[in-house]
Amino acid sequence: MRVVIVDDEELARRGIRTRLTRARDVEIVAECKNGREAIDAIRRFSPDLVFLDVQMPGKTGFDVIESIGGEIFPQVVFITAHDHYAIQAFDINALDYLLKPIDDDRFDLALRRARESMVRKNESSLGRRLASLLSEMSPSKNENATKPPADRIIIRSGGRVVFVKISEIDWVEAAGDYVTLHTGKKSWLQRETITDLDKKLAPSGFKRIHRSTIVNLERISELRALDNGEYRVLLRDGTELKLSRNFRHSLESLLDGHS
Predict the structure, then answer these.
(1) Residue 107 CA to chain centroid, in angstroms?
(2) How confident is the model at residue 72, as a pLDDT?
(3) What is 46-106 written as a DSSP string?
(4) How far is residue 121 from each of residues 43, 74, 114, 221, measured CA to CA in Å?
(5) 88-133, pLDDT tens digit by residue?
């Protein structure tokens, strides 16, 4: 979580900072001693969470929220020495409300609530993106309508959904009903036949050069002829692949793509 600390008391800021440095999943992007600094920092860094003092000289914590806009303001944990602000704080959907001097257990609880809220927010956002993407990938009701090729491949891996840009794929190798997509130093395993993937990638400048290999034409740096009628295909990153005789028809496309 990217966090901004806002409090006019240096001692209070130090106490919050000390507690946050114990958490490995937190990055403090700014510390502010007044409302004006807070407004600038929040607009600049777009943090996930703000620890915000209510009472400060000049602009109060509520003034800071009003200046940024409650609809787009990050998650906020209010900090104050007076509990009579609690109702007003929760009226604007504050995540939590901490009284000075801050209790360690209450602080940990507020941080845990922030984490849980972020998880729910990210899951909701991912769900919307997936729904939108699946909608785009569904067959058109108009069979004559032309559809641009997809610009990414969806990889489901270990409970995660990863979006791999097709333009970032260097080459693909197959093993049975699985394919491995190589992107720089990373590789992604996908349950799909190389024949089906070849159809998806062909419109984006990919060619099948072997029964188990597809290559991104933009990644090829050199072709070397072998004595048996095959070719060695060298990629820019030093990877060596083989263009088999059964896919000699791809040679013309390879040469055209690098003329």
Answers:
(1) 28
(2) 80
(3) --SEEEEES--SSS-HHHHHHHH-TTT--EEEEEES-GGGHHHHHHTT-SEEEESSPPHHH
(4) 20, 12, 10, 44
(5) 555 566 788 888 899 999 999 999 989 888 877 765 555 555 555 5
